[in-house]
């Protein structure tokens, strides 16, 4: 009986430790959740879009988040008018290297 309890306790501890092991594994800076890394061209596109937003007075650059993966730009955030949402999508699509735009900006 005691041997069985010790075995169960050991099994329990091992299962907890194996579950926590994934929390201890760190990813290098710039890595994606799927294990791939952000390419230089994706970073360049993201910077270009952010810069274009800063220089466009109609787009609240701090309210729109930009991420790029394989040239596909995803916009998220909240704005007050649909006109601003559409403008952000058009400005993004006009940047060199952008393959497509996923405009997930929501209205406040």
Summarize the structure in short.
The protein has 108 residues and is α+β, with helices and mostly antiparallel strands. It has helices at residues 2-24, 40-55, 82-93; strands at 64-69, 72-79, 100-107.
Examine the coordinates and then state which fold CATH places here, giving the name of the CATH topology of the domain at 37-108. Histidine-containing Protein, Chain: A
Order of helices and strands: HHEEHE
Strand content: 15-25%
Strand tally, please? Answer: 3
Query: What is the C-alpha radius of gyration, as a whole number of Å?
Result: 22 Å
Number of helices: 3
Structural account:
The chain is of the alpha+beta class and 108 residues long. It has a domain at 37-108: Histidine-containing Protein, Chain: A. The chain contains three helices and three strands, in the order ααββαβ. The chain has helices at residues 2-24, 40-55, 82-93, and strands at 64-69, 72-79, 100-107. Strands 1-2-3 form a three-stranded mixed sheet.
Labels describing this entry:
108 residues, alpha+beta, Histidine-containing Protein, Chain: A, three-stranded mixed sheet, 3 helices, elongated
């Amino acid at each position: 009986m005691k041997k069985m309890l010790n075995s169960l306790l050991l099994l329990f501890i091992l299962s907890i430790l194996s579950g926590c092991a994934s929390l201890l594994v760190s990813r290098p800076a710039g890595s994606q959740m799927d294990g791939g890394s952000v390419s230089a061209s994706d970073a360049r596109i993201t910077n270009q879009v952010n810069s274009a937003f800063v220089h466009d007075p109609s787009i609240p650059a701090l309210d729109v988040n930009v991420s790029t993966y394989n040239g596909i730009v995803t916009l998220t955030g909240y704005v007050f008018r649909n006109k601003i949402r559409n403008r952000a999508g058009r400005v993004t699509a006009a940047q060199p290297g952008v393959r497509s735009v996923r405009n997930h900006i929501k209205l406040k």
